[in-house]
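Progress note, project year one: complex with aspartic acid.
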Amino acid sequence: MNSPHSTSRRKFLKISALTATAFPLSNVGAFATEAQNKPIVISTWRNPDANAAAWKVLQANGRALDAVEQGARVPEANPNDTSVGYGGLPDREGCVTLDACIMDEKSNCGSVAFVQGYKHPISIARAVMEKTQHVMLVGKGAEKFAAAQGFKKQKLLTKESEKAWKEWLKKSEYKPYHNPGQHDTIGILALDSNGNLCGACTTSGMAFKMHGRVGDSPIIGAGLYVDGEVGAATATGVGEEMIRIAGSNSIVELMRQGLTPQAACEEAIKRLIRKRGEERAKELSVAFLALSVTGEVGAYSTNDVFEYTLTSPEKIHSVIRSDSYFK
Ligand code: ASP
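Model obtained:
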C-alpha cells in the first residue's frame, strides 16, 4: 500500500495547489511525464495489435477518429479476447451484450449500450455520432439502427465463452472485483499529426453481470471523455466505480486546471478510494489512462495489475506497467 491516505492526500493537495497557481495549463512540474512526439496512440492493457491498426492510420497522416475506431475493432473481432466484442463472456443468462462509445476533438460523440448480435459496436457508435441527432442508442433500438446501417448480424457467443459461462453457472458466484481476466475493456486514445485528439472505448462488460447491466464504457464522461483543447481519458475495471465519480470527465477537468495526466489519474483513483474506504477499495480493480494535447501520458490504478500499450515515434507498441495505489 502507498503512504498513509491522509499523508498522500495532503501531499497531493499541496502539489496540486502549487501547480494550479504557478504553472500554465499542461505544463506542471511535480508529476510531469515525458511528453511523446505526435502522433501518439495509447490503449488500456496489452493491445499491440490494436495499437498497430491505429498506428497505420496515424502514420498515413490519417485522422485520430479513424485510428481509434480501427484500433478498437481489433479486439472486437478477436474471439480469444473474452472481454470485448466477438467471444466476450456473456451475462448470467448467457447473452453477450456489448457497450461502446467514441468521441472526437470537437466533443462530438456516439454511444451504444446493451447491443446483442453485432461484433463491432464501436462502428455502430460512430454511426450514431455521424448519422443521427442523438448521442446514445441502447438495446433493440441500437440493433435496429445497426441493421438499417447495413451492419451484419452474427452470433457472438463462442464455444469457449459458453463453456466458461456453464462452468460459472455451477456456483453462480459473481466476483468481478479482483479479476482482471474478466474485465479487460479496451479504451484507446489517439493524437494525430494535426493535433486532433480522439478516443474510443468498447467492452462486453463485466463477465456474468445481471442481464441489462450497463457499465461505464459507453457512458460519455465515465468510461471515456475527450476535450480537444485539453486532453482525453478512458477507464477500465469495475464500471460502477467510474460512473460514480464521472471518472474520465473528472480527469480531463483536472487537466484543464493544470494537472498533468498522471496527477489527474492519481487524483481520480484517490477520490474513489476516499469515497469507498481503503478496505473496500482494495477489492476494486479500477484503472485510468489519460493523454494531454501536448502528448503527455498518465496512468494509475487501484491495484497493481494494470498495464497499457503506447505507440509514438519513439516507442513502438511498448507495454508499460502502470503505477498503482495499492502495491
Ligand atoms: N469497465 C467495464 C465495465 O464495467 C469492464 C472492464 O473494464 O472490462 O463494463
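Confidence is low (pLDDT under 50) at residues 1-32.
The chain has one domain: 27-324.
No further modelling is planned for this target in the current period.
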